[in-house]
Amino acid sequence: MIKIGAYNELTIIKQVDFGVYLDGQEDGEILLPRRYVTDDMKIGQTVLVFLYCDSEDRLIATTQKPKAEVGEFSSLKVVDTNRAGAFLDWGLPKDLLVPFNQQKIPMKEGYGYIVYIYQDDISERLVASSKLDRFLDKVEANYKVGDKVDLLIAERSDIGFKAIINNKHWGVLFPSDVFGEMGIGKRCKGYIKQVREDGKIDLTLTQIGYGKIDSLAERVVQTMKLHQGYLQLSDKSSPEQIAKILKMSKANFKKAIGQLYRKKVIHIENNGIRLNE
Questions:
Q1: CB 169 within 8 A of CB 141
Q2: Angle at Cα 253 formed by Cα 250 and Cα 258, nearest 5°?
């Protein structure tokens, strides 16, 4: 079966002036418009295409890459609103609808929101929802401390940032585990710091395995990663320069790099510090 809102490998069965038709099996012939057809596409050839519905709700194929597909969370910007709801730019000619009853808060044109993309059971249309809780924590979380995971920063809260883990679960990044710029919609790698007895998951951006280093040392490590593993800071640097880059005092900086050096996480060069491979 073909999957709408996802990539499919389909066979070219007919060539016409305005494109080629693909074998959609029980869904019939599906048009790949001419602007997406390349010279090497021939009848009988299998092509990888993304399927969605055009403005007239006809199934259509494209080789354009959308910003997200069905079953995924993504940060998308509102480009229009009307009586039907809000419309998001997801990288395809037809914008993606968020009905009013799927908006956690009223959406405004020009703003970005984290949404989940799915196919509505009744209308069979591709739509999105910003009511994220409906789609998360539905399967048991089997993470271990130190597991590397994909994160999408989705919400800011009083205790830090809520992040979507591997497109499946909620997790939390506490302020002590956040280094550098961290905005809503950012994607990054993270690690499981703790799975609590109530099932809630704590996250960190620093790889587990350096040993037990405190939050100041973690901040130095993460900032170094953001600067290709090197910081031009040393015990000769001014307190102002250290505070600007690391948001900590010079005394705390010296304490942190001393700890990292003893644990062989970094080595100290003439004018800076560098992460060990």
A1: yes
A2: 130
How far lies 130's CA from each of 100, 103, 254, in Å? 10, 5, 44
- One-letter amino acid for residue 106 of the chain: P
Confidence tier at 178 by pLDDT (50, 70, 90): confident
Q: Can you tell me the distance from the alpha carbon of 266 to that of 276, in angstroms, rounded to the nearest whole number?
A: 5
Tell me the residue length of the chain.
Answer: 277
pLDDT of amino acid 180? 65
Q: Quick one: which of 190, 183, 182 has its CA closest to 170?
A: 190
* Distance in angstroms (rounded) separating the CA atoms of residues 87 and 108: 10
Centre a 10 Å sphere on the Cβ of residue 195 and count the other Cβ atoms it contains: 17
**CA distance from start to end of the chain:** 46
Per-residue model confidence as pLDDT tens digits over 15-39? 999 999 999 988 899 999 999 999 9
Dihedral sign of CA atoms 55, 86, 89, 25 in order: negative
Please state, in angstroms and rounded to a whole number, the distance separating the CA atoms of residues 174 and 182. Answer: 12
Burial code (b: 16+ CB inside 10 Å, e: under 16) for 90-99 equals bbbebbbbbe
pLDDT digits (tens, 9 = 90+) for 125-143: 899 999 999 999 988 889 9
Q: Which of 112-126, 207-221, 262-276 has the lowest mean pLDDT?
A: 207-221
Structure tokens at 245: 């880059």
State the sign of the Cα–Cα–Cα–Cα dihedral 135, 136, 138, 142: positive
* Helical spans, DSSP H, in 62-150: none
